[in-house]
Amino acid sequence: MPSMHLFTFGILALLLPNAIAAPTSNTAAYAVKERHDAPQGWTKITSPVEYQTISLQIALKQQNSDALTKIALEVSDPSHPRYGQYLSAKQLLGHGIDTAALSSTRDWINVDLPVHKVESLLNTTYFNYRYTDGSTLVRTSEWSLPVYLHGYVDLIQPTTSFFRTPKPLIHPTHEHVPMRRHQREDLLETMPNDASGSSACNIGKLCDPTETSLRCLRCLYGTMNYTAQVPERNMIGVTSYHGLAQRRSDIRQYLKKFRPEAVEVADTFPIVFTADVLDHYENLTDPTDLAEADMDAELAIGISWPTSFMAWSTGDDFIEWMVYVLAQDSLPQVISTSWGANEHTWPLATTTRLCDGYKELGVRGVSLIFASGDAGVAGVRDESCGSEFHPTFPASCPWITAVGATKGFEPEVAVSAYGSGAGFSNHFAMPKYQVDAVHGYLEGIGDMHAGMYNRSGRAYPDVAAQGARTTIVTSGIKTSNSGTSASAPIFAAVIALVNDARIAAGKPVLGFLNPWIYGAASAAFTDVEDGSSVGCDTDGFPAADGWDAVTGFGTPNFDRLIEAAFSVFET
Ligand SMILES: *[C@@H]1O[C@H](CO)[C@@H](O)[C@H](O)[C@H]1NC(C)=O
Ligand SMILES: *[C@@H]1O[C@H](CO)[C@@H](O)[C@H](O)[C@H]1NC(C)=O
Ligand SMILES: *[C@@H]1O[C@H](CO)[C@@H](O)[C@H](O)[C@H]1NC(C)=O
Ligand SMILES: *[C@@H]1O[C@H](CO)[C@@H](O)[C@H](O)[C@H]1NC(C)=O
């Protein structure tokens, strides 16, 4: 088979340019490289048409992954002398770390091949699989490579990944009222003028549980009185998938009403398209799903203004965004993403590769914030769970900060209209920084849900913020939506302001947050002690004193976060 020879030779040539080790025979011994059965809900149906083309992505193994981990831990650990000494992409190369994704050509090989060729290269058989919602994918449950190549290749997709598309983590809250009820005219006439009035924060008066306003959020988390000092040197970004992007007219309308001093941003913030949007603009027709990008931007700008703001619009694939972003020289210091999927829809090698990329962003000094999911212990969306809870990814990656959702004020409690995404990873081990906090919690809950979750996995969320009936403007209409979708940009915007204070004082930004959150900052949150991460026809995990698998350490308190941000060890 000449094609197999070419393939293996091609990979080798790319891997070992100085050691052209042409295989002497094309009958090299194959062994299974990866096996990942179709998750529940997928049924094998027919064989694909043999000349159908598959666009294969081959990820070569990263070099020096251990060195990267060491640096990431040091620069993110407030008690380490290297804390805050982030590295640029170039400096990483100087450390011999030629990772991810420094460019899409270095570590990734893309080839378009007909199915039958891919089948012979990987000694596998592809099938059409159908999901319960009728959508189909061409996949296989295992693939092989010549044994001598196993050490050079991390993953090849699409093979065993049943991950289809990430989901926006947003919910309609006017369940019984069509969104169109709020007409545009109403918007301008009947909305209370949120921006007027004194700077006094009377939560009881200001915060309405049926409509969580921007002003309420700014008061509740304590950023109302803070004036950003270095907005031009500080930035927050949000990411949208499916080729979705903000409608500037919505952002303008929202800011005009709720943060009038910021209104110009609506027409000036950059929206960077990392994929061909026409290829990716998906059939998301639910107006709630479409509201995601607007909500993320409105909350992020509304809270962090005048901090610089940007948005990405990307395709369906987390890898594509990661590869793109890692190749940029200059990045926002805080990035919020309100999209996710259930961890088990990806094979381990893929989530591992993504999480490594997030770790690298930590080394670059970026705080990555992800929504934790809207179905409690069932993950992103309600689905039957069988005998196991479903963790969500990227929330389950130990190199990012996952944000759960609360509702109510004085006190805030975990949301109950949906479950705040929470649980324990099956792909990632519990990182050291959270062992004490999480073990304390596990002792407290004893054998509740024993066997349904992985007690040694990375536990999430890390923190929480409001995620119920948040006021937004979308499609020209004022409405309110819920979801950890709101929680993530709210939390991210508060962190952007803490970064502002650090930069203004000549200090590095906070970077990867978790070692700090579980350490010096653990008391800088308002603990949430009621509610649970409902899902899988169970009550999920209960909120508790201190860290819990519903709301993490709780919601941000800006003054205390500032204090914690300035109390850390620094050389
Ligand atoms: C390919 O896989 C089949 C089993 O699916 C196995 O019998 C065969 O030996 C494999 N071929 C090679 C070259 O390893
Ligand atoms: C802002 O500061 C002023 C003056 O110190 C104070 O009176 C007011 O209550 C503060 N507002 C908030 C929201 O903390
Ligand atoms: C969108 O959905 C319609 C109906 O379900 C389908 O006919 C059309 O091909 C879809 N468009 C894209 C770009 O997938
Ligand atoms: C539980 O988590 C550990 C650590 O990540 C992992 O090695 C193990 O495979 C997981 N167990 C299951 C059943 O997924």
What would the CATH topology of the largest domain be?
Rossmann fold
What is the structural class?
A: alpha/beta
Number of helices: 18
Please name the CATH architecture of the largest domain: 3-Layer(aba) Sandwich
Strand content: 15-25%
**Helical fraction:** 25-40%
CATH top level class name of the largest domain: Alpha Beta
| Uncertain parts | 1-9, 12-26, 100-105, 175-197
C-alpha termini separation: 61 Å
Major sheet characteristics: 8 strands, mixed
Rg is 24 Å
CATH superfamily of the largest domain: Peptidase S8/S53 domain
Bound molecules: 2-acetamido-2-deoxy-beta-D-glucopyranose
What does this structure look like?
- The strands form 8 sheets. Strands 11, 12, 13, 14, 16, 18, 19 and 22 form an 8-stranded mixed sheet that branches. The protein has a 3-stranded antiparallel sheet with strand order 2-5-6, with no helix packed on it.
- By secondary structure, the chain is an alpha/beta fold.
- The chain is built from 18 helices and 26 strands.
- It has 2 domains: 6-62 and 100-162, no CATH class; 229-565, Rossmann fold (3-Layer(aba) Sandwich), CATH 3.40.50.200.
- 51% of the residues are buried.
- It is globular.
- Residues 30, 123 line the site of one 2-acetamido-2-deoxy-beta-D-glucopyranose.
Q: Would you kindly provide a brief summary of this structure?
A:
It catalyses: Release of an N-terminal tripeptide from a polypeptide. By secondary structure, this protein is α/β, with parallel strands linked by helices. It is 29% helix and 20% strand.
